[in-house]
Amino acid sequence: MEPAFARPRWLDRPASVARNRTPADARDALPGISGPAAPPGSKVAPAVDSTGRVGASGTGGPWIRSAWRLPGAAALVVVGTLSAHAQAKQSAQPPDPAAVQRGAYLLTAANCASCHTLPGSGSAHQLAGGRALPTPFGVFFSPNITPDPIHGIGGWTFGDFKRALRRGVSPSNTHYYPVFPYTSYTGMSDSDIEDLWAYLGSVPPVSQPNRPHELGFPYSLRLAMAPWKVLFLDQGPLKPEPGRPPEWNRGRYLVNAVAHCADCHAPRNFLGAVDRGRTMSGTRERLEGYEVPNITPDIQTGIGRWSVGDVTGLLAGRGMRAMHVGGPMREVVRNTSRLSEADRTAMAVYLKSLPPRFGEVKPGGMMGGMCH
Ligand code: HEC
Ligand code: HEC
Description:
By secondary structure, the protein is mostly helical. 40% of the residues lie in helices and 5% in strands. The protein has 16 helices and five strands.
């Protein structure tokens, strides 16, 4: 993956590294989300989004910021007048426990914690980021996504969060790198994004600063992501395909929008985007030392000889295949093994329905020819 992003002449400004707010910003933004009584996962957040992106500037917007500089009660009155009354009422509600639970499930299915937790850092650092993600463009470090108001996303609104997942845009309007797989998460439904948000608001905040990415030039230019996204971001949500059974559509949704299997199981083009014509056909480009196999149902080079049950079994962590699967896929299996059997079967059904494609890497890597 040698060639670089073409560097337009106008991109002569270094990337903004200020992903996180200053402590002052965070102080201003936090009460704007939910008030002291409710964590950031509270249901008030969607209302903020629908009233014109109060939080989209990353600082709560000028008017809400100044409102919050007034002493407590007065500020409530001002905000209540300026925005919907319903919003102020909702802010008293704690997050819905059922939404938190659904969010935890989605977080597992989407591998969020695998990337956003430093391996071996212990449960006290869950979701606090710091994991190194080496890529051909340099080393990325996952950020803290706990509700810490300074180092995490505690100062965010639901609107900020939704924009990050759907459009890959930060609260301060910078573009995220697609190593954060928003090109897949963009397909998630609004209600699933709300549930994820509810869950993230329920985890303990961890005060751990983010580590800056170590990227070579010109990848260090965040702005270069803007034209990239025009080319490669298909903004979601992913709509079900009519005429297909619900199980198949569920599998398609999980594989593509949530579990982002193609992010690893496809070759990338010279701009680092998934090659859509060869999606799921694997790649020789190694991930943590592992080549990534073809998981289309091609008989010779893919999972053509696997039954739906074989795929489901692997994702459940059962049997020889699961025992031998290594590297990044072992982490994926740790997550998929915690999903429902119905969801695993749906993913398997969908994968087996894909058009067979030739791939350079056959599954069954460590087992040699045993399966074939
Ligand atoms: C493959 C690794 C990976 C996975 C999986 C992943 N992320 Fe991230 N995420 C990153 C990286 C790396 C960044 C930083 C991107 C950048 O700086 O442009 C990031 C950025 C973010 C941000 C922005 C944080 C900030 O401070 O601006 C949020 C929010 C986020 N991720 C949430 C999630 C959620 C929720 C999930 C699961 C649905 C998830 N991520 C899954 C790697 C990942
Ligand atoms: C983070 C990258 C990554 C993601 C995401 C990922 N895989 Fe994998 N997958 C791999 C790698 C690497 C291997 C090869 C592992 C090995 O050789 O031991 C692999 C292997 C496999 C295999 C072959 C196992 C075998 O016995 O040879 C299947 C099937 C598979 N993945 C399915 C999936 C499905 C389905 C998803 C989405 C739910 C998925 N993968 C998501 C990286 C990934």
